[in-house]
Structure formats: C-alpha cells, structure tokens
Amino acid sequence: MTGNERQRDSMRSRYDAVVTGVRVAGASTAMLLARAGLRVLAVERSARASDILSTHAVMRPGVVHLHRWGVLDRITAAGTPPIRKTTFHYGAEKVELAIQDRDGVDALVAPRRTLLDAILADAACEAGATVIHRATVSQILHDSSGRVSGVEVVDAAGAVHRVKAGVVIGADGVRSSVARAVGAEVLHEGRTPAAVIYGYWRGLDLNGTHWHFGRNVAAGAIPTNDGAACVFAALRPERFNAQLRSGLDRLYGEVISEIDPELADSLTGAERIGKLYPFAGRPGFIRRSWGRGWALVGDAGCFKDPITAHGITDALRDAELLSHAVVDGTIAALGGYQYERDQYAKELVDLSDEIASFDWDFDRVKALHLRLSKLMARECDMLRERQTALDAVLCV
Fold this sequence. Notes:
- The protein is α/β, with parallel strands linked by helices.
- It has two domains: 3-67 and 112-190 and 284-359, FAD/NAD(P)-binding domain (3-Layer(bba) Sandwich); 195-279, D-Amino Acid Oxidase, Chain A, domain 2.
- Helices cover 41% and strands 27% of the residues.
- The chain has helices at residues 3-9, 24-35, 60-68, 72-77, 113-127, 177-182, 237-243, 248-259, 261-268, 311-328, 331-357, 362-395, and strands spanning 14-20, 40-44, 85-90, 93-98, 130-133, 136-142, 148-154, 160-170, 186-189, 195-202, 209-214, 217-223, 228-235, 271-279, 285-287, 290-291, 294-296, 302-303.
- The protein starts with a helix and ends with a helix.
C-alpha cells in the first residue's frame, strides 16, 4: 500500500479544519492547529517535496518562528547553510551587515522549497494532521445558510470524498480557488511588479546573501542547499516582454552584467544546475482573509512582489496568527487575525511595490530598505511579546 493510499484510508468525513495547500503557509497552519488538538485535513495537489517558485530567503522573524516551533534544527541538519552576513550593493557601494544573535537565532537560512515544505508537512503529520498529496479540492461546500461547510476532495486514484469542516482554510497561492469560490474581496493592490529570472549555481564563494541594486535592474545571490546558490535577476516587465524572444539565457546574462560585472564573472566560473526559471511579474494584493466558515493564509490572502524576499517569512507569521484565531473560534478573533496581519501586510506590499518599480535613486532605495528593517524589528518585538505572554501562562 502506498503512502497516498494509507493517507486516503485514514480520511474522515468531518474535520475541525481543512487546509487546501500544504506548502509553507498551509503546512505550518495545519501543524499548529493539530498541535492545539484540532482534527485537521491538509490537501496538496503536488507531490511531496516538489519544487516551486521561491526566493528561498527566510528573514529573522521567520527564522524565529521555525526555531520556536522546533523545526529549525531539522532544516540546518539537512545541510542548509547558516547565513551570518548580508551585503547590499548600491552601484559600486557595499553595505555589509552581520546577522546578530537575538531571540535564539544567530543566523538566517534560505532552504530549498523541496526541503522546507517537506519538513513542515512532516511536522504537521507528526502533530496528528492528515496530510494528503496529489489530491485536489474540486469544490467548496456550503450549508443551507450559505456558510462554507466543507470541501469535495478528489484523491490521486480519482475517488471523490465529501468532507465536512468547521473551517476551510485556503493556503493555495495567489490563484487561490478558495478565495475565488468565496468571493474574497481584494482590499489593497500594488501597481508596479518586477519581472524575475533565476537559476541555481554551484561553485560561488558568497559569504552570505548579496542584494544588488542598479538603474532599472536588481539581482540577488542567496546560498541554499547542496552547495548551491539561487541567483536572480530582476528587471522591468516591459523589457522582459520585449527581449524574452531573444532567450532567457541572453537576457539573464545581460541583466547580471549590467548590475555587477564581478557577479557576472563569477558565474562564468561556476556550474549552473538545471535551467533558468522566468517570472513575468504580478502586482501585489491583500485580500479579505476570513468569512463565514473560511479563511485565507499565505499568498492566497496577501502577495507582495518577491523583490523584497518576504513571502516565506510572512507565510510563517500569518500561519501562527490564523491558527490562534481558529483555535479561539470567535468572529472577533478572526477579525483580529486580519487586523494584525494588515499591520504589516499593507506596508510590505507598498514597500515591495515601490522597490519593484525601479523609480528610485540609491538614496531612496536605501531609505526603503531602512523602513523594511524597522518593520522586521517590529515583527520581532511582537514575537517576543507573544513568547513572554506564553511563558507567563505556562508558569501559572
């Protein structure tokens, strides 16, 4: 009997929560809800440990979450390199920043999604959630009052299961079928996305992450697993569309050479692993994140341009915020989830939007990065306060 068959056999007819999507946001939410004692079903259309578009970088608030949840050690034990320095390149100027030892974290990480998603999904299973890969949520069910009441799941063998749920959580990405089915309103939207081309390289001597900014272009080099680095090139969508027919390799090489000839030279002596991956760009947005019997988390609820590399970090934060609200079970708590999420989300969407516009000089983009740093510090303060409150409860 295969793993999927074992998972299918264990599927119940009713759960406290059904999570659609078992990537970072969905797997984390399922794990936290299961640890709180809820009966959880998590459904993912792709195979376990499959790849997905990602910047890989996890910022300090996200690493703190992984540490507190007890999964960071698994990520580092799998060979994910610790990142103890980050360098911003503004033209010829370099600004080097050491990663400080705070909140139990002395380094950042940028794991491949084939590793991170699998570790979080396994942690959800260990917590008691039923996790099913290669299955599709084909329909959102409603009761007679119009409240979302469950889902219809088609498993890998083609069998159809109708599952009742106290809440259905969409963690199924920017094109969320849950958001579409419930008519989740877009509350805020960006205007100026960047296009990105990225690939994986082995043989680069990086000494931490590097973020490059130039006129109408940007790039990044991010150490990840297996001795490789994710190297991306970002540009205006107009140029991406106009020059795409000349080939990804040529356009990618041109942008890297424009942004930093030294980085371009280092790639000539490195080994590229596999093909290049394009992303044509998509405006950021914030959707309404909850309603009668449903909620959204991760990119399904809020997506920002990847040029600021905050998608994973925000998904981890929102998973914790939502799980607390679902366990509470009140309308006030769900409303509080959206309110607290939006304290960070709107500013992050707008900051990412402005950086992705390329309508800045170096002084301006430095100021934007300073605002971004202050926002992350605020998130860490929030996490510290939450942990202090939890410790106080446990000591009573």
